[in-house]
Amino acid sequence: MSQVILHGVHFRYMNKMRWGVVCFGLVILGFVLFDRVLAPEADYDMLAYAETYRIEHDLPMPPQMFVYDGCTLFPERMMGHDFSTACLRHDVAYWLGGSDADKVRADAVFRDALSTSGPLGFVFAPLMHTAVRIFGDTWIAKLCNANWGFGWN
Ligand SMILES: [Ca+2]
Q1: CB 73 within 8 A of CB 35
Q2: Rg of the chain taking only CA atoms, in angstroms
Q3: How far is the CA of 22 from the centre of ligand 1 (A)?
Q4: Are 115 and 122 in contact (CB under 8 A)?
Q5: What's the 149 CA to ligand 1 centre distance in angstroms?
Q6: Residue 96: which H helix or E strand, with range?
Q7: Per residue in 69-82, pLDDT tens?
Q8: In the chain, what are the domains?
Q9: How much helix, strand and coil, in percent to the nearest 5, is found in the chain?
Q10: Which among 19, 33, 78, 87 is placed 20 to 30 Å from 122, CA to CA?
């Protein structure tokens, strides 16, 4: 008898877990869609900057054109901070891609730029740096076409 009850409790728990996973997935999907709708478009100056960056770093031209989507899954401006310059440079580096060491460097440059972006830079810099270190080369970034080396997707 107790085994049946335990089994029932276990079953209900698993059912809730499954719903939790589905809801979490929907929240992430909604967040991604919301971010994609608000994403800015790459203007001529951004494309020129990307090309200059590529030439300066002596990197090959990826087959896909550069696309700037703002700070991926994060606002470009908030609480007196403007992250757009840091995010643009970071996006260009991600568009071009390269080795793991190149990614570590690109993420470090991003962190340093964020840390001087405003009074709370010391909070945002480690937060966003950790996010790009962990998710920058995963399916989540790929879902946004913002993964490491996305010009080569
Ligand atoms: Ca981005």
Answers
A1: yes
A2: 20
A3: 26
A4: yes
A5: 12
A6: helix 84-96
A7: 888 888 888 888 89
A8: 1-38 (no CATH), 39-152 (1.20.90)
A9: 65, 5, 30
A10: 33
